[in-house]
Amino acid sequence: AAGSPVAPRAPAVQQRRHPPTLTMVVEALEARCEKRGTSAVAIRRYILAKYPSVDAVRLKHLLKRALAVGLSRGLLVRPRDSAALGASGRFKVS
């Protein structure tokens, strides 16, 4: 046991069944393509319909984070007349 060679193991990698949340959000916004923007509820419904493997309970938190990150990175914008904060209101692709 002390001198026997041990074969190195490859790290266990879990296959993704869906793309990252921010990618799914941008895809949902491009698919909806509404002039006034798309609501967070409509984005959530689109993601759950297209990617049934997504956990609906975790999606609530992941969607909030993805929307915040998208706004801070400049990938997403709010419509001009929007005064909403957080994950409420409407969003558009910049």
From TrEMBL:
A single GO BP: nucleosome assembly
Keyword Manganese: no
Domain H15 intervals: 17-94
A Pfam family that the UniProt record links to this protein: Linker_histone
Protein keywords: Chromosome, DNA-binding, Nucleus
InterPro entries, per database record: Histone_H1/H5_H15 (IPR005818), WH-like_DNA-bd_sf (IPR036388), WH_DNA-bd_sf (IPR036390)
Cellular component annotations (GO), alphabetically ordered: nucleosome; nucleus
Stretches assigned to coiled coil: none
Alphabetical list of Gene3D superfamilies matching this protein: Winged helix-like DNA-binding domain superfamily/Winged helix DNA-binding domain
Species per Swiss-Prot/TrEMBL record: Nothocercus julius
Protein name: H1FOO protein
Gene name for this UniProt entry: H1foo
GO molecular function, one term: DNA binding
